[in-house]
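Support request, please re-run this one:
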Amino acid sequence: MGTWCWRTWLFKLWDPRNPVTQMALRGAGTPQFAPPEQMDSSFGHTDARSDLYSLGATLYTLLTGHAPPLVNERMFRNVRVPPLRSYVSDLSPHVEKAILKSLALKPAQRFQSASEMLAALDRRRATRSSPPLWAWLLLGAVVLILLCAVVTLGVLAVMAR
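Re-run finished. Output below.
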């Protein structure tokens, strides 16, 4: 399986009256791993969600042995990303769902942070929830009662001598 990569150049425009860095040409990467906003700035600007798209494409390729379809094929020819489980039948459904979510064409439909994606990939983290406040209060009350009982038994033992 070969990988094709093209290069674009980034230029910093120099204007002594306006020292703000300006980009003259947007860079692109390996097409199979690049999100739409990296290919064409009309889809928005790149941010952390762009990296999560690339991470999802990398995980997809590592697990299936096939790169996901190119963004332009997905957008203009309605090519769908084949389900990972069609290649890897014993893959956990929550892992497949997380990777496919990271490959959403619109950044707003992807994970908004790496920690959110990690929680979705790790089902134990995704399903773990904090006990309600009443459970903590009940636990505190039980510990307090046990502590009082131990102290009381200790005092009674000392008095009995």
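Residues 54 and 83 are 17 Å apart (CA to CA). The helical segments are 36-39, 48-64, 71-76, 93-102, 114-121, 123-127, 133-160.
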